[in-house]
Amino acid sequence: MLESLGSALKKGFDKIAGAIFIDKKTIELIVKDLQRALIQADVNVHLVKEIGDRIKKEAENEKIKGIEKKEHLTKILHDEIINLLGNQKHELKIEKGKNNKIMLLGIYGQGKTTTTSKLAAYYSKRGFKVAMLGLDVHRPAAADQLEQLGKQIKIPAFIDKTEKKALNIYKKYKQELEKFDLVIIDTAGRHSLDKELIDEIKNLTDMIKPDYKLLTISADIGQAAKNQAFEFQKACNINGVIITRMDSTAKAGGALTACNETKAPVFFIGTGEKVNDFETFNPEAFISRLLGLGDLEGLLERVQSAIDEGSQKKTKERLEKGEFNLRDFQEQLKQMGNVGSFSKIMEMIPGLGKTKIPEEMLGVQEGKIKKWQHAINSMTEEEVNNPEIIEKQTTRLGRIAKGSGTTTSDIRQMLKQYKLLKELASGSGDLENFDPAQGLNQKQMMKIAKKFGKKMKF
Ligand code: GDP
Ligand code: MG
């Protein structure tokens, strides 16, 4: 998603880092590239123009010179983009033991039902007792869809396939639903927000009084999301937005920035069809990922959706301490089926932005992952903890290959990937090596951009 915006930003940072003088021409070029990419991502032209003007104006400040100027520009570029997306992360206030209710609203096909199950799974994994309530009485298959999803994620779906009045379904299950920490309510859509839909929503919300009314919008409508969010805000008093299908459109930038303009915060984004393709929306983390800076928080959150918190915390600590070993590598491999593709995971590990990952690593296929799992299972504890001994002794390689039905070259390749991952994850090449005479390289520039964004607000 948004690859062209990511690469335009990267190019911009590179140009700043590589320029001997930050002169007017350099700025013009950077701004032009950025503007083109923003428009391609369907961001509103007026916003794009404003951003360009602000960057140019700041850059012309004659008082700041040399390396400081580069840092200053990097920060402006970074901040402007984050600003465009809404700055801080917004979180729903959901408390255990309180019978919270979230109602999803939106027009047809935007992803309400799918997102109902994603949200249910998200909170269930975090220890909430969750139920889903199906109130779409207009689409005949809606109840079946929710029932199916409920079975898949093992969360009760309260539905009634024959009842034609949504409120009656609610009344029927009201008492039972009170036993849950959180009830996610799927509602019916229409082709547009017409009077009938407004009346129905009003009817339901008057009676059910949900804590949150979240509008579900598909990213592929781009900046049209602005009008839709405004309309729903006016008619139904929504508290925020969930943007789905971030994965399947280049226009996601338009949808994200448009919602920011309406001041209806984007709480979550959907990034695929599977139940775990779902994450909280955090502008800063989103941008660092776009830039290939990686986002450990995002990765861990995503992995958390698939495995338990305890083991994830351990992996995080081990990664940070540089103790990541073959067993951890195997654990990561094991989770991949749930989490998504290898490249998706790589994008989220700090320092493992796509640009730095060798092609061969991105191409790791499911079959290979299985082979590697078998190979690690055929190793002794000593070999797992100290893989170097395998490479040194070909007898070990042969034994493991035979025991696991793999080849020695499979194992060598796996060890190579493991080492690469370990090395990259432990974060090599930091600012300590900074040589003022040489200037900043791209990696260092990225680090500065990230640090600035986090710590220095001026
Ligand atoms: P509803 O009519 O608003 O309830 O929409 P549905 O939940 O039935 O979703 C419509 C279609 O969008 C389905 O085919 C979903 O699988 C698909 N969908 C929903 N969210 C996402 C997402 O984040 N990514 C992708 N690629 N597809 C999605
Ligand atoms: Mg639906």
Q: How would you characterize the overall build of this protein?
A:
The protein has 22 helices and eight strands. The longest helix has 20 residues, at 66-85. It has three domains: 3-85, Four Helix Bundle (Hemerythrin (Met), subunit A), CATH 1.20.120; 100-286, Rossmann fold (3-Layer(aba) Sandwich); 303-452, Orthogonal Bundle (434 Repressor (Amino-terminal Domain)), CATH 1.10.260.30. It is flat. It is 58% helix and 9% strand. Strands 3-2-4-1-5-6-7-8 form an eight-stranded mixed sheet, with helices on both faces. Helix 1 packs antiparallel against helix 4 and helix 17 crosses helix 20 (394-404). It is an alpha/beta fold and 458 residues long. The site of guanosine-5'-diphosphate has 19 residues, from helix 5.
